[in-house]
Specification:
- The chain has 481 residues and is an alpha+beta fold.
- The chain has three domains: 125 residues, Serine Threonine Protein Phosphatase 5, Tetratricopeptide repeat, CATH 1.25.40; 87 residues, Serine Threonine Protein Phosphatase 5, Tetratricopeptide repeat; 174 residues, no CATH class.
- The chain has 19 helices and eleven strands.
- It has a seven-stranded antiparallel beta sheet, with no helix packed on it. The chain has a four-stranded antiparallel beta sheet with strand order 1-2-3-4, covered by helices on one side.
- Helix 1 packs antiparallel against helix 2, helix 3 packs antiparallel against helix 4 and helix 6 runs antiparallel to helix 8.
């Protein structure tokens, strides 16, 4: 999710005034976060019908441009950006976004002019977005050295990278098909389509897409592993081994490939070879969990033990201490999750099913409120949009944990240090359209949002159905802990 030159202008999330009708604007941001562009357009148009403040309308037009671009309604996108410039002629985002729209629409002279203007007027921003590389690509397209669809392909590929992080495989599939339409002879679109089909359990379609990518570029390394992996999903271990061995020759220390080779050998009854592959995994990475589990299941190793969090011991020691300070604790339970809360002291969050998940916060007082389910859906969309916006330049730390009633779990953690992402982990699916049972957010960022500038603190939500939910928010407020 690092900022890239091909990503359109970031959605604007700062509300200029506190007395404006915010609900339509919040709805639009939620829809944009979930890439439901038509609904976002409707909400933005409703917002502008209720608000005549120029600064607010400028933000809305900027976001309208992004929505129209995503729908490939290029003329409408440019018209929206013209409105931004009419309100603020020197707006850098409008100029940059114009370049993106024109490049995606194959209007390359206009795109080049916009990016050159952006580079002259805002050279530092242009360096951050690597506009020089973008201009080089566009000039190559004009000279006929690379196909016209090259810019659009890279633009979509960057978007797909984010969609994969949050398991939006239906969006990956849609964009992959657009990539294929733009440049059918390139492997990237076919590969992305294969990933989308694989994750949606459509294995034959995935195999066909991966093979199409491999035919177009036999040296496209990720394809070899995924063809082997897909054959395993189809319960065809013999061809799987052939492709996995080819992948391993390209990357001899890839523990994922070794693990899959072990699985294929086991299915063929070659248990000794399977154990050998899994042991080789641990020679390279002694903490590689899948191999540890396989060896344990086959009587060849101890039961794997999840590594303890560095803060787990602190959590264990602080929990009784913080609880003891609570004079009138309120206790909320939802399945295995228990929240013990005293607004004057802090809260303790405990998860009986997962000892690694917990929070102790003693930075009272808290801002507490009731939140309705329909408003929470907006909150989920805003958080999903936030995940699209954060990068190493504006964020130091973010962690999100969400439980859904159907058992799906979304977990996202990212840490940033000195302008680089040093840790990243995402699993599960972030479902914006479903009210979660539990939601926890921790963030330390310079982002300008409706919840604080800078956005800093914690937010806890626990759905107490059929009772009203509880929202505990410290975002935007500096708190001790």
């Amino acid at each position: 999710m690092t900022h890239n030159r091909h990503i359109p202008s970031k959605p604007v999330s700062q509300l200029a005034r506190v007395d404006i009708p915010t609900i339509s604007y919040l709805h639009s941001l939620a829809m944009m976060g979930d890439e439901r562009w038509e609904e976002a357009i409707t909400a933005l148009q409703r917002f502008m019908g209720l608000n005549d403040n120029p600064a607010d309308r400028q933000m809305a037009y900027q976001n309208l441009g992004a929505c129209y671009l995503a729908l490939e309604r290029f003329d409408e996108a440019l018209a929206a950006l013209d409105e931004v410039r009419r309100i603020r002629p020197d707006d850098p985002e409008a100029i940059y976004s114009r370049g993106v729209v024109c490049a995606c629409a194959s209007r390359f002279p206009e795109a080049i002019a916009a990016f050159e203007l952006y580079t002259r007027n805002w050279p530092q921003l242009a360096r951050q977005r690597e506009v020089k590389k973008t201009l080089h690509m566009l000039h190559q397209i004009e000279r006929g050295e690379i196909p016209p669809g090259s810019y659009l392909l890279e633009n979509l590929q960057e978007q797909i990278f984010h969609n994969l992080e949050v398991d939006d495989f239906h969006l990956v599939e849609s964009k992959a098909r657009r990539m294929i339409a733009a440049l059918p002879e390139r492997p990237e679109g076919h590969f992305a389509l294969g990933l989308a089909c694989l994750e949606q359990d459509r294995y034959l379609e995935a195999l066909e897409a991966f093979q199409a990518a491999q035919l177009r570029d036999p040296n496209f390394e990720p394809v070899l592993y995924n063809i082997g992996h897909t054959y395993l999903k189809l319960d065809q271990p013999e061809p799987a081994i052939s492709w996995l061995e080819r992948a391993l020759r390209r990357d001899p220390k890839n523990v994922n490939t070794m693990h899959q080779l072990g699985v294929a050998c086991q299915r063929l009854g070659r248990s000794a070879e399977a154990v050998g592959w899994w042991k080789r995994c641990l020679e390279i990475d002694p903490n590689y969990g899948p191999a540890q589990q396989r060896l344990y299941e086959n009587g060849e190793g101890p039961e794997p033990v999840a590594p303890a969090s560095p803060n787990q011991e602190k959590l264990r020691l602080m929990t009784p201490e913080v609880k003891a300070r609570m004079r009138k604790p309120q206790i909320y339970r939802n399945g295995s999750i228990t929240l013990t809360f005293d607004g004057r002291v802090g809260f303790v969050l405990e998860d009986a099913d997962n000892s690694l998940n917990g929070t102790v916060h003693a930075g009272s007082p808290f801002t507490s409120a009731i939140i309705l389910d329909e408003d929470l859906l907006d909150m989920m969309g805003l958080v999903k949009m936030l995940l699209r916006m954060i990068d190493a330049n504006n964020t130091r730390d973010i962690a999100i944990l969400i439980y859904y009633s159907n058992g799906k779990l979304f977990n996202y953690q990212a840490r940033f240090q000195q302008g680089k992402k040093i840790e990243f982990d995402a699993q599960g699916q972030f479902v914006v359209t479903k009210v979660p049972r539990f939601f926890k957010l921790r963030i330390d960022s310079d982002l300008v949002t409706p919840y604080g500038n800078p956005m800093h603190g914690k937010l806890i939500y626990l759905n107490q159905h059929p009772k009203a939910a509880i929202l505990i928010s410290t975002l935007g407020q500096e708190q001790g802990s």
